Amino acid sequence: MNMQGMSNISDSEFAQFQRFIYDAAGITLSASKKALVSGRLAKRLQHCRVDSYAEYFRLLTQGDAADEVQTAVDLLTTNETYFFREPKHFDFLRGQALQARRQTQMFRVWSAASSSGEEAYSIAMVLADCLGNAPWEVIGSDISARVLQRASAGHYPIERTKNIPADYLRRFCLKGIDEQDGTLLVERGLRSRVHFKQVNLNSSLPELGAFDVIFLRNVMIYFSNDTKRQVVARVLSMLKPGGHLCVGHSESLNDITSEVQQLAPSIYHRK
């Protein structure tokens, strides 16, 4: 089967993958995502030497291709992100971290859909700036094992880092030279304060401890309302009383939960 043929996914085949990713991750794919699904999976058909999306779906669901299932989930759930996305959240985080300097307890932040790590490292830069050597920790999680490997490395193309403040670039990042030219590496001391874990928000959560601030941004837009309620309930169970939850600017918790109070657009306070 040629690559051109692989770009043609039928409606019935697309419906199979809509169900597949909903069952795996609670993500609802609209009809507008049909081209995205075929584009991201086409090379896997070639790799697995199957002739159609229906045959690839059978491979995923026959029960003995766990690695390929994880690969398909990775491809269908990976979202683009960048450093210091939605800056007002980081301004808010700075204020919370400065207040925490008067405390002796560890200040903990969870990037609950961290993708390739830019959000988690942005959080860490703010905490390192405000809290220094005081006790603090960042947990980054994602359903995709592939992007978590990239996140742990902390190594990015230089064009992905344009929103990092100049002072933070100097203090927390190393510019590549020679064969690493055009790349940037988050420095080792900062990387050591960020821990990445594979977490599926659509199932029971592992024991992660309690957090002062949780970032759950730009992920709920892919969930049905029922799934949103379940995911938010799980996430809030990890938020300390008096803690704060940040969601994406295009997202809202109206009619999703009564456990938090809105402080500002996309920023909520646990009562």
Question: Strand-and-helix sequence, N→C?
Answer: HHHHHHEHEHEHEEHEEHEEE
Q: In CATH, what is the class of the largest domain? A: Alpha Beta
Roughly what fraction of the amino acids lie in strands? Answer: 15-25%
Task: Describe the main β-sheet briefly.
Answer: 7 strands, mixed
CATH topology of the largest domain: Rossmann fold
The number of distinct β-strands equals 10
Low-confidence stretches: 1-5
**How many distinct domains?**
2
Structural class: alpha/beta
If helices are DSSP runs of H or I spanning 4 or more residues, what is the number of helices? 11
Distance between the termini: 57 Å
Strand order, biggest sheet? 6-2-1-7-8-10-9
CATH superfamily of the largest domain: Vaccinia Virus protein VP39
Describe the structure.
The chain has 271 residues and is an alpha/beta fold. It has two domains: 75 residues, Orthogonal Bundle (Chemotaxis Receptor Methyltransferase Cher, domain 1), CATH 1.10.155.10; 184 residues, Vaccinia Virus protein VP39 (Rossmann fold). Helix content is 42%, strand content 19%. The chain has eleven helices and ten strands. The protein has a seven-stranded mixed sheet with strand order 6-2-1-7-8-10-9, covered by helices on one side. The chain has a three-stranded antiparallel sheet with strand order 3-5-4. The N terminus is likely disordered.
Salient structural properties:
7-stranded mixed beta sheet, alpha/beta, 3-stranded antiparallel beta sheet, 2 domains, Rossmann fold, Chemotaxis Receptor Methyltransferase Cher, domain 1
